[in-house]
C-alpha cells in the first residue's frame, strides 16, 4: 500500500526518516510541503503510524498504489459537522434559549451514547415547538459555514466524474439551499413541520436515521448504475456508520472516536479536500 501523510501546515523534513522507518516503506515522495507519499508501506504498522501521526497532528491514509478518484462514482456526505461546521438543530435551539440542552442530546447521540436516533431527534425537535420559522433563515444566513476544503473537494469530485449526495439527519431547509448553492446532485433529510409560520415541534414523514442514510446511499448507487463499493461516504457521527459501511471508502471527518475507529480514513486536521490528495 501507499501511505499518504497530510497536514494543513508544512510537514517538517524531521518527520521523513521516522515515518519511513515506522511504515517500513522503501521510498518517500514529497508531493508538496503538506503531503508525503510513502511507497510500499506495510499496513500492519498502522498502530505505530496512528500513534506517531496523532502525536504530531498529521493525517494518514493507506491507499492502493493505482487507486484513482475516478474509480468511484459517488461521494455521499453527512451535512452537520461534516459538509458544514455547525449542528443546525443546536443553532436553531439557541433562538429559544435551549442550545445547551439540545447540544447535549446531539453530542450524546453522535457519540453513540443514545442508541435510538429517532428518539434523540424527536426529543430535540419537540423543544423547538412555537419557535418562529424565521430562525431557520437566520441560522442559514448568519451561522452556517462550509467546512474547510468543501468546495474544492466537490469541484474535484465532479471533475473526476462523481455524482454528489448530501444525506442528513438534519433538515431539508438547509440541505435544499446547499443543493442549489453547491450544485449537488441528490439530497435526503428530515422535514420540519411549520404551521402559521411557527415550528410545531414535529418532523413530517419518516425520520432519516442511520438505516435510512445507508438505504439512501444504496438506492442512489442503483439509480446511477454503480455498485455501492464505488461510493465514498463521509461523516462524523454514529448515525453515519451504517452508510459508511456500505461504501467502498469511508472518511471520518473530525469525527467522534467510534467513527474514526471504523472508517477507512480519518481526517482530523486537514480539510475535506484531503480526499482529492489521497489519489
TrEMBL record:
Q: Name one GO biological process term.
A: L-serine biosynthetic process
Top-rank taxon: Bacteria
A Pfam family that the UniProt record links to this protein: DUF4072
Q: Where in the numbering of this chain does the DUF4072 domain appear?
A: 3-49
Q: In which pathway does it act?
A: Amino-acid biosynthesis; L-serine biosynthesis; L-serine from 3-phospho-D-glycerate: step 3/3
Known EC number: 3.1.3.3
List the active-site residues: 78, 80
Please provide the record's keywords in A-Z order: Amino-acid biosynthesis, Hydrolase, Magnesium, Metal-binding, Serine biosynthesis
Q: Which NCBIfam families match?
A: HAD-SF-IB, serB
Regarding protein family, the annotation reads: Belongs to the HAD-like hydrolase superfamily. SerB family.
Q: PANTHER family, alphabetically?
A: PHOSPHOSERINE PHOSPHATASE
**Entry protein name:** Phosphoserine phosphatase
- Species of origin reads Caballeronia novacaledonica
